[in-house]
TrEMBL record:
Official protein name in the record: Cyclic nucleotide gated channel subunit alpha 4
Membrane-topology annotation of the record: Multi-pass membrane protein
TM region positions: 35-57, 107-128
Keywords for the protein's UniProt record, in alphabetical order: Coiled coil, Ion channel, Ion transport, Ligand-gated ion channel, Membrane, Sensory transduction, Transmembrane, Transmembrane helix, Transport
Residue span(s) of domain Cyclic nucleotide-binding: 211-317
Amino acid sequence: MLRLNRFLRVPRLFEAFDRTETRTAYPNAFRITKLMLYIFVVIHWNSCLYFALSRYLGFGRDAWVYPDPAQPGFERLRRQYLYSFYFSTLILTTVGDTPMPAQEEEYLFMVGDFLLAVMGFATIMGSMSSVIYNMNTADAAFYPDHALVKKYMKLQHVNRRLQRRVIDWYQHLRINKKMTNEVAILQHLPERLRAEVAVSVHLSTLSRVQIFQNCEASLLEELVLKLQPQTYSPGEYVCRKGDIGREMYIIREGQLAVVADDGITQYAVLGAGLYFGEISIINIKGNMSGNRRTANIKSLGYSDLFCLSKEDLKEVLSEYPQAQAVMEEKGREILLKMNKLDVNAEAAEIALQEATESRLQGLDQQLDDLQTKFARLLAELESSALKIAYRIERLEWQTREWPMPEELVEADNEGEPGEGTS
């Protein structure tokens, strides 16, 4: 009996449940299903004990035990099981409407079932609370909490129109299951696994950008980790003309309009898969725009964009100098097509950079010469200090009129330290 659990493979069953809960896409629903299965098994075992106790006490002996199988309809196995299961369910759910026990064994059985029902009720409530808490925790991790923002706007007396826009933005995120904090969600994954997840989700979007085409796969994988999802509400400006460009944008979903300064006249409409601002995050010599935005971009509806900052791109390109040169060359080609590349200014900047590098090389050479001279002076200083120390020690022995040690006598014969023998 003690080894019956090995025959039933109960530990393997629990292990299978844990694996399924980890792999399933609906873990909360699986937890509820598993809880219902446990309840069914407990009621089944309890009904079997009830039927065994009824047989021990005698079928039909009183109203509490199972009726006499000799009566019509109670001799069938299915009826016996369903009656016992129903009776056990009434007791364990504390619904009531059960016959009063008449014998001591019946009282003990009822007391045990009531205690089991109390523990079962506490277990069920705890499990359901855990499921609800996990669901709320997942929502809080995926979507920002709008309650704090609403309270802040109310305390700061923000106008109602702006409050409505903020609330609509939060509702849009929840209704359409959009997340803006992917970095926080994936932060506990190992770096390599996090990179693979990001690549599978965003690499196709990043590879469509012209300036990143034909780049190394490892470079794109690192850039994918730097993409920040952003959602813009209707009528919201992504950038304005004259702003300093610190990031580029890739449209994932929605539509953006290139508008005039009045915010009404539309010059063009950008859709999913397009991008803008890529030139402003690369320092291209001779760029007539000066890394400033050249147009007003406004969201027509709710738009999902990927943002790549200039600092993140610079950090990644520091390890890929060849890719940086290729991207700068592509940027020059784009600026030439747009007639926004000053070739003379570019040549002047290149000449200035070469002159600066040449001057730096000269300074490096001068620094090396100074270090060599300093090392020589330091060696001469050490030699002079050693000579002075020997002279002082020799004078001390002479003034005391004591015979000098053999070392000093040999030094006098061979010459002072630091001097060559003649």
